[in-house]
Design a protein that fits this description.
binds adenosine-5'-diphosphate, Alpha-Beta Plaits, binds magnesium ion, about 25% strand, Rossmann fold, 6-stranded mixed beta sheet, single chain, about 300 residues, alpha/beta, globular
Length: about 300
């Protein structure tokens, strides 16, 4: 495994006219790790990824990716990076083989035919290589896409919402593949909206309104959120949800299956409210907040919550 940082960028800023899309982002990511990049739509994830791999000029800020300056040496970064854009897709009317050959040509891969053969074999798609890509299921398209962006042997993978709209089994397969690549030394930064995917990452970086709100391991983020969460289970929880929503100390109400999570930052107020909110046969139990609970708390305490407030 290489020592040092695969991504080392400081104070990245990107303005589009008056719009500040990215507002002072720092990322120090060691080689060989898998990081999750989270944040609401429009928070600046794609823009940050594109600055990191040298596809987009920064307004200000500086740094290196794979040891190369993001501004002056972007050519070196591009050939060592696999970038799967949001909604990455294939030419549906080209065959599977033609799609891979096209990508191989883009990256000027030497001995292209051999590399494409190998890739098809690894994927188990040799027998279907002459079918059009549109004939593949969503999950297979995704595997093909991942194979295509790793064919040139990149050191870093930047995956921008690669599993949006992909079914759960295909998402699991996709993540197994990501971990296999990571075990072989690949560094992976992947943006996602899925909490279960975030929990598979070594670290998470969370953006809101172009700013990094928090970064760390799942466990660090939950600890730092300072959130207190109570849960109750049963058929009555839906009624209970509307009874406690907006009451003193209650900042967030969420369902996890049949359980209700009620969270807040102020223990006294929260417990006071919950004491009054009881029904026959139910009990509030304190639990460790989920990652999702914690993000909502962090957004609120950083003043980045754009949703309607209850007060
Ligand atoms: N080329 C562009 N021109 C103008 N505004 C842009 C451009 N690209 C992105 N933005 C704006 O920058 C903000 C961040 O966008 P983006 O990086 O795509 O966020 P995310 O990937 O987190 O959804 C959004 O408000 C978006 O509308
Ligand atoms: Mg995006």
């Amino acid at each position: 495994m290489k020592e040092g940082l695969a991504i080392d960028v400081r104070n990245l800023v990107k303005k589009f006219g008056p719009k500040v899309a990215v507002n002072g982002v720092d990322i120090q990511m060691p080689y060989g790790q898998v990081w999750g990049f989270l944040g609401p739509n429009g928070s600046g994830k794609t823009t940050t990824i594109r600055m990191i791999c040298g596809l987009l000029k920064t307004t200000s800020g500086e740094g290196t990716c794979l040891g190369y300056d993001i501004e002056k040496e972007s050519r070196h970064i591009k050939i060592r990076t696999g970038y799967m854009t949001q909604k990455f897709s294939f030419w549906g009317d080209l065959t599977i083989r033609e799609n891979l050959e096209f990508v191989a040509r883009l990256y000027q891969i030497p001995s292209m035919k051999q590399k494409v053969d190998e890739t098809l074999e690894n994927l188990g798609l040799e027998h279907r290589q002459h079918q059009v890509a549109d004939a593949l299921s969503g999950g297979w398209k995704q595997r093909l896409a991942l194979a295509a962006v790793t064919m040139h042997g990149p050191e870093l993978l930047l995956l921008d919402e690669p599993t949006a709209g992909v079914d759960p089994q295909a998402r699991r397969d996709f993540w197994n593949e990501i971990h296999r690549l990571s075990t072989n030394g690949m560094t992976v930064l992947v943006s996602t909206h899925y909490m279960d995917e975030a929990e598979r990452c070594d670290k998470i970086a969370y953006l809101a309104n172009g700013k990094m709100i928090t970064k760390g391991t799942v466990s660090d983020i939950i600890d730092r959120s300072g959130l207190i969460t109570y849960t109750a289970k049963g058929e009555f929880v839906r009624k209970m949800a509307s009874a406690v929503e907006g009451k003193p100390g209650v900042e967030h109400v969420a369902y996890f299956g049949s359980a209700l999570h009620v969270s807040g930052m102020n223990r006294e107020l929260l417990e006071g409210t919950l004491k009054k909110a009881t029904m026959d046969g139910m009990e509030w139990t304190e639990v460790r907040p989920s990652l999702e609970d914690s993000f909502i708390a962090l957004m609120k305490s950083s003043g980045e919550d754009t949703r309607r407030h209850h007060d």
